[in-house]
Amino acid sequence: MNQGLLLRFENLVQLRGACQQLRALSSRKVCGARWKPVELSAYPMGSLPLHPQLWPEHRLISAALSQCRHLATKEETKKKKKKIPLTKGEVEIRQKMTVEELAQAMRKDIDHIYEVLLYTNINLDSVEPDSILSEDHIKMIVQKSGMKYKSAKLKEEKERKNTDAVKRQVVSCSFWLFLFIPFCKPPADPAVLTPRPPVVTILGHVDHGKTTLLDSLRKTQVVAMEAGGITQHIGAFIVHMPSGEKITFLDTPGHAAFSAMRARGTNVTDIVILVVAAEDGVMQQTIESIQHAKNAGVPLILAINKCDKPEADPERVKKELLAHDVVCEEFGGDVQAVNISALKGENLMVLAEATVALAEMLELKADATGLVEGTIIESRKDKGKGPLTTAIIQRGTLRKGCVLVAGKTWAKVRFLFDENGKAVDAASPGTPVEIMGWKESPSAGDEILEVESEQRAQEVVAWRTYVEQQEKMKKDLEVIEAKQKEHRVEYEKQQQKLAHLTWRQRKAVLYKANKQLMFSRPKERTEMDENTLSLIVKGDVDGSVEAILNILDSYDCEDECKLDIVYFGMGDISENDISLAEAFNGVIFGFSVKANESIKKLADKKGIKIKLHNIIYKLIEDLKDELNSRLPPTLVETTVGEASVLDTFSVTVGKNKIPVAGCRVHKGLLDRKMKFKLIRNRDVIWKGCLSSLKHHKDDVQVIKTGMDCGLSLDKNLEFSIGDEIICYEEKEVQQTTSWDPGF
């Protein structure tokens, strides 16, 4: 034990001597010696001899210098990485800074920025905290504030990798192509393809019996549940035929407002059944439905409904359809025509057999293996279940636990429900299913794609959100550049007007002109224009909200009353909707949604209007009434009597001569209390009141038809024989909007 301690002590003494010798040699010969760089890793400390007399001199110097050089380089790198601090009164600026960002960089409040902008050509009314300033204005604001600016280094943004999910491709690919194109997939093995039920969409004009037909096929009372007998949103159902076949039906609305829904239903369908009433013939939505089917390349089956009525004329319907390139088989075409009565159930099996026969000719098959693909038909929010979507599965088999992506949201499937609300374990291609488990409500028409994991789903959603933001930024930049160009033109015009002034006089004029605007600038937008109608739109499903917004997009009477859609969404009326309506002085319109008693009481307390409807055209009528109430009343003139000037003379009153007209009333009566106008050669040259009205020498209030009178005006105006005197009454009449929503 003692020998080991002595050995360690001896080693330490030798190491200390070696360090002293190394220090002496390095200080004595480092300046004049030539050395070669040596890596320290080649001479680890453990392998060096402990006796200093055995170490070569050049090795000692080289090791010392390399160690010093290594430490110096490390310190220099740290210094380079350190950000050079800004000096006092220096501001780091960059391009496209907003007012708020510049204020934060300068450590000033936003009002300071506005005050400096008084000396510029910028219109303060158009400047908000998030408004982007030009580089020249940024530099000028910093300099006017007595500070210096320093341009920030631009960070080169790396191109983001595309992490979007795509459909499985069905093109044929070679083995080597798979190695270089990872998303290229082989065509499905014919052995894997299995028959699937056809997806059939029922289209036609409103009230032509589409829902009654579907009701008769599936033996449920859908019509009784719908408001006004009009389908308000899309529905997907499976009908089991006696022969064992299945048919998936999509029932789309026929009302004019739901054009987008009909187009969406056609895009996911295999066969279209066009329902036309035998007594009405081809109507507006009938033509539109034919166009949807043509655009999607989907075959048609013609169902002529209401053939049980005495005024029914199926042949007229077939001839009218010839003008729209729908040629029935009896006229040499390929469109099957079936005469039916949906109400009485006549020939419904013939229609179903025609559908099955056409589906067999199309040889409809799908791959039930692999990742799921589908299309969202409808989306809604349930108070207990959260966001729900009705979808048609087009490829793969959907099961619980699958991770799906649609639009900018994703879901891990918790439950699946069929059209009757019963939970199911799986959904195969061609099957409509209701999906529960979405993080947010996707939009109707979005494509459903299954991904491998939740992490992958989040990557896809992040990428799609990023792409949308980039597109929005690009559009915003175009708008900003257009605004800047417009402001530049206005500035140049303003400078031309002030060209004759000195620069001090020009600055004084600009300051005085903008000073009042600056101090009267509201901090928040608390008051809305009286001639603006702010709307909060709530609907039961995404398609209903979409239909209402499409109608509002056709509003073209901004000069009469501005229409501002503050918020739209799905679900019942909430406290948040009341708060928004109160902030914007708006009105809440709900379609097929509810408002509980507490919400109604809160709305009454705050004076907020809640208008709930179950039929879309009644909602639009109510909206038009609300628009009318925002319009200012107009004055309407109603003629009470007419008289002609037969003679003129004057009467002396004091020192003044007053012109008097001798008139005869030929229509109505003249009432002195009402207003009058003088018409000469069809031009109105005077409007006002009478100063006197006499019959013979008596002052009177009223002169009736056929009587003569003398009258003078409240203005000293000469009369001419043949002039017309009109007695009229002004009434305030409520204006009506000229907006025509199209139905």
Quickly list its features.
single chain; alpha+beta; 17 helices; six-stranded mixed sheet; Rossmann fold; eight-stranded antiparallel sheet; 743 residues
Give the secondary structure arrangement, pairings included:
Layout: H1 2-29, H2 57-81, E1 90-93, H3 99-106, H4 110-117, H5 135-144, E2 148-151, H6 175-180, E3 193-195, E4 199-204, H7 210-218, E5 235-240, E6 246-251, H8 259-267, E7 271-277, H9 284-296, E8 300-305, H10 314-322, E9 336-339, H11 348-362, E10 365-367, E11 373-382, E12 386-395, E13 398-399, E14 403-406, E15 409-417, E16 423-424, E17 426-427, E18 432-438, E19 447-451, H12 454-497, H13 503-519, E20 532-539, H14 542-553, E21 562-570, H15 575-584, E22 587-591, H16 597-606, E23 609-613, H17 616-630, E24 634-653, E25 656-668, E26 670-671, E27 675-680, E28 683-688, E29 690-695, E30 698-699, E31 702-703, E32 708-713, E33 724-733
Parallel strand pairs: 1-2, 4-6, 4-7, 7-8, 8-9, 20-21, 20-22, 22-23
Antiparallel strand pairs: 3-10, 5-6, 11-12, 11-19, 12-18, 13-17, 14-15, 14-19, 15-16, 15-18, 24-25, 24-33, 25-32, 26-31, 27-28, 27-33, 29-30, 29-32
